[in-house]
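Task 17 of the worksheet. Students: predict the tertiary structure of the chain below and write it out as structure tokens. Keep your answer in the requested format; marks are given for formatting as well as content.
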Amino acid sequence: MENDILAVIERESASFSKGQRNIAKYILENYDKAAFMTAGKLGKTVGVSESTVVRFAAELGYDGYPEMRKVLQEVVRNKLTSVQRIEVATEQIDEENLIDSIMTADAERVRITLESVDREAFDRAVSAIVNAKKVYIIGTRASSSLATFFGYYMSLIMDNVAVVHDTAVSEVYEQLFRVGPGDVVIGISFPRYSSRTVAAMKYAKSRGAETIGITDCEASPLYGISNINLYARSDMVSFIDSLVAPMSLLNALLAEIGFCSRENISDTFRRLEDVWSEYAVFLTDDN
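Model answer:
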């Protein structure tokens, strides 16, 4: 099935019934709102029955309205501006129980990520990283926090790790200048996807590096660029990107990489503990 549901709806509009054309017109003009409506609410908004909305989804080839809505959400999510995100979130979030709504949704994203993770791709990613000549990690904008976290712990496990910083476009390519075969470049990007991360990953692949994409789904621009893809559920919370599930996936990667390098890690942390103690890096009862 074609990924861009909006293009399909526009192309097939002429063959729809009058009620279905009204649904199509509303979705094309208000995709940011329609993608998060129930079948009943969409029908009421457009002025048709709920059953008409369900038949509309079937006409497009989906097993039911929930499947169509999920595809619509995945496709349009990257098109939402911050203002549109706030408007959608206002309708979605229970303001009376905000903390419950947010944390329950985050827990659900972690559960969905765990159930859908590709274990073979996960193992391939671990093997590629452990055996790499050099590991480059790039994540910009909101994903920069994930890249920094992952890079910090990776540098404790391995001595061939570099986090690519993007203070300027030219600096990204300067930091990737020597990338080549035998190296691994890990790109981390979630909606709204960073054009700079995508461009850097294309460059790394063109230079013969192994590319690993950590993103949300096959609709991501990293899909097709990356030799290995790992997906974590990331949704919007108002203007905020929920990165709880991606962080959990990175934790799992770090743990597995650490397990593969456990002998080196034990020695590394023994030496680090001496350094931390000598220079009072952490607070203790003595300081």
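Marker's comment: The chain is about 55% helix and 10% strand. The CA atoms of residues 5 and 71 lie 7 Å apart.
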